[in-house]
Input
Amino acid sequence: MATSMTRESEHSSDHLLTNTQSQSNISSPSLNINKRSNPDSPDNLPATQKQNTRQIRRRNSQGDLRDIEKKTPATRENITDKVIEALTSPDVLNTIIPVLAEKISKTLTPLIEEQVKKCIAAHVEPIQKSIDEHDFSIRDHTVKICKLSIRMEQVDKRLKDNNKMLDVWDSELDALHKKTKDMESRLESQEQYSRRTSLRFHNIQVPVDGHGKILHPVNTDDKILSICNGQLGLNLSIDDISRSHVIGKAKYGKCQVIVRFMSNRTRDMVYTNKKYLKHNEDGVFITENLTKFRTDLTKKLSQMKYKNQIHAYWTADGRIFVKRAENSRKEQINSFEDISDIERDITSPTNQQQSDAEK
Output
């Protein structure tokens, strides 16, 4: 500011000097007369001296202006305070602040938006990338699931078809099982029928060696005829016996002998008189020559008889009969299912109460 004032003072001094010079030029005709009497006048000086005089005047005027500037700091401070006071007044602030806010908003809003977009993009891009990867994975899994679903439908259809075939096969197997069971029953009955003329003698004395093995041959015909004629009171001959032989191993010098008679009549006569062997010293007794299946049935009935679960059981012509109680009817046993039915009836609550009442 001091510089500007200096420049203005210089300009004014030049202007004054110019005016002075012009006035001096204008009035030169009249003044020349008077100035001639003053030899020290600048107008009477040479050109170089005139320039030096002007420079001295300028320096003097600048020094005066500097003195003025030194005297005006208080005035400047007052002006500054006035300006600050004016600028901080509510009216000025209410006028300036909205304008400044609008300008600042217009200037900063794009910058803020750009920075926010950059910040958001920095966080959104990884998320978007992850979302895209998951979308791709989901689409891939969806395709796989669709393929698996189609395969499952195909497999399900095949399973249904196979189940239908299995049902048919089960029906066929049931029919075959029934036929097989019927055939087994018929074969077992046929086998038992082939033994209708045979009896089995138990605890027959046979010769054995020191190791308990039977010494063959054994004359079983003579032993059977001796028992039948000597202990049963019959009159049989060798012609009544078709064949006889030892079966199984000897135990304590005794074994079983199977005898096939020539006729069913002779066989029935021997089997009827078996009661005379009850008190035999050697423990000889006679049973029907049953098949293995029917022999297993009689063993099971023997266990039940020992436990007092049945009253009695016996065989006749290869058939097996049982009486649950002394006064009950006889029942024919053809399979293990029949025995299981008897056991279920015995263990039922009603029969338990009846047995407790009888006790």
Residues 290-359 form one domain. Residues 1-36 have pLDDT under 50 and may be disordered.
